[in-house]
Amino acid sequence: MTVSPQLRTQAYINGKWVDAQSGKTFVVTNPATGERIADVPDLSEEEVLGAVKAAEDAFPVWSATSPKHRQDTLMKFFNLMLERTEELSRLITLENGKPLADATGEHKYSASFMEWFASEAVRTYGDVIPSTIPGLRNLVIKQPIGVVGIITPWNFPSAMITRKIGPALAAGCTCVIKAPSDTPLSAMALMEIAEQAGIPAGVLNLVTSRNSRMVAKVLCEHPVIKKVSFTGSTGVGKQLMQQSSSTLKKLSMELGGNAPFIVFDDADVDEAVKGALIAKFRSSGQTCVCANRLFIQDKVYDEFTTKLTAAVEKFVVGNGLDAGVTHGPLIHDRAVAKVVEHVEDAVSKGAKVTVGGKAGKGNFYEPTVLVDVPISALVSKDETFGPLAPCYRFSTEEEVMKLANDTEFGLAGYFYSRDIGRVWRVAEAMETGMVCANSGVLSQATIPFGGIKESGFGKEGSKYGMDDYQITKLVLMGGLGTRY
């Protein structure tokens, strides 16, 4: 199955659609069928450097535009995205595999960042700080940081880009974007929309390459790039930090997770099951905020795991474009192998499979629930990034908080309780950047998204999302004399 003719399959540099000068390409496939979707350019280092130069040249003009102009441009971007919802949602499913309903949700979520940051563009307020010295005035202003390097993952091929370019454009920055090699087509569609919205040449540049290390090295080490924003694994994030140290770039990192999902014995168990289905199995478990460890208190353990198992049995796994499919494939065979490893390890240590537990043909793995999982299991420490729900039993609040926080990661955490005192205690004690109490739904353009510990730093979305794309400058004004 090929993409529709109007969709682009080229890189986008300085307002032009380009192939690799070498003629090299790499293949994008549908993870559900293995079918070839498109061939896209495999750019060289010289061509990536050309994209950086284009962004550098465009920065003086774009940064000088008024916030109102940037607001209007981002709103055009937003409206154009909505006009192409059906087409671009289908494209997400084709290259990523998630069911069409999920892809449509991602597309609308993606568009919401353009709408949100269109509004934030005109709210980059400064400050006046009273001076301790007569005759001086202290002013604080916000300015765009400069050219931004953006590296995004395959699991949200559209939303992870707009979550970064939204605030960057609103602040007045220009960008060089490294499209994910597995899912670059949605990024290309966004560049086409940017062009239609009137974003000038060089402001947004999209590079495609199988050599991700080369592109990352250019973005991290080039002195023109003033900030790098990365979403991906903690291991790669650490490498990018090392590479960026030579120029002391500003960084924002949204990295790995190992989210706890806690069900206390005073919870509404039915609501907790509904929340777990979302928090664990959304996108077949391939999100950074997916629940990775489900802790259930003794009194409700059997009830919760029985109801969770019954709900998972109703899932329909298949091609995301087929009617009735609730869960699609994993992105590639390596992702399947990791789930297989985690299930086999847990079962060898005493865990029991209540539903699923088998790999299918190609990139499919059955949504799986494990009970009686020991803390010694590999899944307790290692993020699965797949449709596996390991359930652990606990007795006391103190015990489960130690278990929940016993990880180097700290992105998201979930828990269910109807005790208001416990809600406050647990929310404050949970060592994560984001906490969901009595809900399995997290992502919104309006919230500050980001983690702590080895899950990274910086916030995306919300009123805080502009900060990472701006510098805070002091303007001290002297020679004003004193009041009459």
TrEMBL record:
Biological process annotations from GO: gamma-aminobutyric acid catabolic process
Alphabetized GO MF terms: succinate-semialdehyde dehydrogenase (NAD+) activity; succinate-semialdehyde dehydrogenase (NADP+) activity
One Pfam family of this chain: Aldedh
EC category name: oxidoreductase
Example of a GO cellular component annotation carried by this entry: cytoplasm
InterPro entries hit by this protein: Ald_DH/histidinol_DH (IPR016161), Ald_DH_C (IPR016163), Ald_DH_CS_CYS (IPR016160), Ald_DH_CS_GLU (IPR029510), Ald_DH_N (IPR016162), Aldehyde_DH_dom (IPR015590), Aldehyde_DH_Superfamily (IPR050740), Succ_semiAld_DH (IPR010102)
Listed pathway(s): Amino-acid degradation; 4-aminobutanoate degradation
Catalytic activity from the UniProt record: succinate semialdehyde + NADP(+) + H2O = succinate + NADPH + 2 H(+); succinate semialdehyde + NAD(+) + H2O = succinate + NADH + 2 H(+)
Domain of life: Eukaryota
Domain Aldehyde dehydrogenase, first and last residues per copy: 17-475
Residue stretches spanning the membrane: none
Active site: 254
Enzyme Commission number: 1.2.1.16
Family assignment from sequence similarity: Belongs to the aldehyde dehydrogenase family.
Protein name per Swiss-Prot or TrEMBL: Succinate-semialdehyde dehydrogenase
Organism for this UniProt entry: Apiotrichum porosum
Gene behind the chain: UGA2_3
